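Figure 6 in text form: structure in, sequence out.
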């Protein structure tokens, strides 16, 4: 017998008819259980986490050799990529509640792969920055879409796997570091060279071509091997009840099981008792199908009640604050390791990217620890987010005390471990709280917040002195503050079924 989980939201926070139908769908998905379809989805949706990890990191990893060849102010490359990520978060996130999850799920990786591959042949800085900006448009939509897709199709008892999904983020970091290490270290211009021709600086191009090809392979798997079913809760939200029932039956068949869900089960919950005036209470409610129109209805739905408005606003603030702090730090981490290493007489490209590989390995167990911690009583999502944020900020502060590259690497290991837990919970708790009929828009709003500050971070870096510890102190304080804010989120998804 499937375990019973209370609803995260009640019908005072979402449309009562939608809420009732979502409960029916949740029960059906829970009865089907965690099966082959959900495990394949974990892999294919994980490709989005992978892309969101590697492509934003690419600007920092290729920064040194690209500057040597094209002679430009480094933060402009990160700025271009982050502008693309911002556009992608808005377009794909909002669009997911208009044209559905399926096309967005398939196209985002395709765009990233095609233009990432092309970026490897860039003849100048302007071309490279433009192509990476378009890559960002594709990558920026991955997390808003993929988290919504996974949460819409997984049983409530296994929602915690959305937190574990961040293991793909860590694996992406590891892979790109393993690729960057030999490519950049062995196929880049000498740091003492006066000129840096293309023939002596192919490493960053090899890295982009390899990563672009890998992203294309992932997009082909999504297109031709894995058949993504449209979200049944999205279909109900636009009035396509029959299609939603068909999707549930398709998923059951894929898992070699059956479901008793019928169209009558969904239609039955629409019958509402009349109020004191003798009118049907549902007559005054806008048709669910209106949510398919590209208007402000989805944004309004996220602020429909005081509790939802507070929750949405706090989540936007959390993503924005953490996005500013982490982007400013992460975008220039290879530069920081190299420049600080130079002060310690071991800032070679080899050691810089070796250290990057070590940091990437450290993050992998964090994803599994996060998946365990969010299910703990009294701690849950909010507690795990608060604790991991506090420790992330603490290790950032501690990194300023490093007096050798080994010490700096050690403090950064702690930072990466706990920041991966922090991001894993943050990426999961937001879509869990947003109702599915507005989930794409909610994900777009929070992703846009972090992308906006991702654009601001390189601008700050243009005028800030990165050789001092001030940016690190600011980043640490912001992340600790965000952790404290997380404790006051109105909703705790642990043990609750997302609607």
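Output sequence:
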């Amino acid at each position: 017998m499937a375990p019973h989980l209370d609803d995260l939201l009640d019908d005072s926070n979402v449309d009562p008819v939608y809420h009732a139908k979502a409960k029916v769908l949740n029960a059906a998905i829970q009865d089907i259980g965690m099966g082959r379809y959900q495990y394949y989805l974990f892999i294919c949706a994980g490709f989005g986490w992978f892309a969101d990890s590697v492509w934003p990191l690419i600007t920092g990893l290729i920064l040194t050799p690209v500057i040597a060849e094209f002679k430009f102010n480094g933060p402009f490359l990160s700025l271009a990529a982050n502008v693309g990520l911002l556009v992608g978060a808005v377009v794909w996130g909002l669009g997911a509640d208009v044209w559905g999850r399926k096309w967005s799920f398939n196209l985002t990786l395709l765009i990233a792969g095609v233009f990432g591959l092309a970026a490897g042949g860039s003849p100048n800085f302007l071309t490279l920055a433009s192509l990476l900006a378009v890559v960002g448009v594709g990558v920026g939509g991955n997390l808003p879409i993929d988290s919504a897709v996974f949460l819409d199709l997984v049983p409530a008892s296994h929602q915690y796997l959305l937190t574990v999904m961040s293991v793909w983020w860590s694996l992406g970091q590891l892979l790109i570091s393993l690729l960057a290490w030999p490519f950049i270290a062995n196929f880049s211009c000498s740091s003492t060279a006066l000129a840096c021709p293309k023939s002596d600086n192919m490493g960053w191009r090899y890295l982009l071509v390899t990563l672009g090809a890998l992203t294309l392979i992932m997009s082909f798997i999504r297109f031709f091997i894995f058949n993504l079913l449209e979200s049944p809760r999205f279909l109900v939200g636009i009035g396509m009840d029959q299609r939603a029932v068909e999707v549930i039956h398709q998923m059951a068949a894929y898992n070699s099981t059956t479901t008793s869900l019928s169209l009558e089960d969904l239609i039955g919950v629409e019958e509402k008792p009349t109020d004191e005036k003798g009118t049907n209470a549902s007559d005054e409610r806008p048709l669910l199908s209106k949510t398919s129109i590209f208007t402000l209805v989805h944004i309004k739905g996220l602020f429909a009640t005081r509790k939802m408005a507070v929750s949405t606003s706090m989540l936007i603030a959390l993503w924005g604050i953490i996005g500013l702090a982490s982007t400013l730090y992460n975008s220039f981490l290879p530069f920081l390791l190299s420049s600080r290493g130079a002060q310690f007489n071991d800032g070679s490209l080899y050691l810089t990217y070796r250290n990057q590989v070590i940091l990437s390995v450290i993050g992998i167990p964090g994803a599994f620890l996060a998946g365990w911690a969010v299910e703990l009583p009294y701690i849950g999502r909010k507690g795990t987010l608060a604790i991991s944020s506090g420790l992330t900020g603490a290790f950032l502060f501690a990194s300023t005390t490093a007096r050798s590259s080994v010490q700096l690497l050690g403090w950064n290991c702690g930072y990466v471990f706990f920041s991966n837990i922090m991001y894993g919970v943050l990426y999961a708790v937001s879509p869990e709280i947003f109702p599915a009929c507005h989930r794409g828009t909610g994900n777009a709003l929070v992703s846009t917040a972090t992308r906006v500050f991702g654009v601001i971070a390189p601008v700050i870096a243009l005028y800030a002195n990165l050789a001092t510890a001030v940016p690190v102190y600011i980043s640490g304080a912001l992340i600790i503050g965000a952790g404290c804010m997380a404790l006051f989120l109105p909703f705790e998804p642990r043990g609750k079924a997302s609607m």
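Caption detail: The domain at 8-234+297-491 is CATH 1.20.1250.20 (Growth Hormone; Chain: A;).
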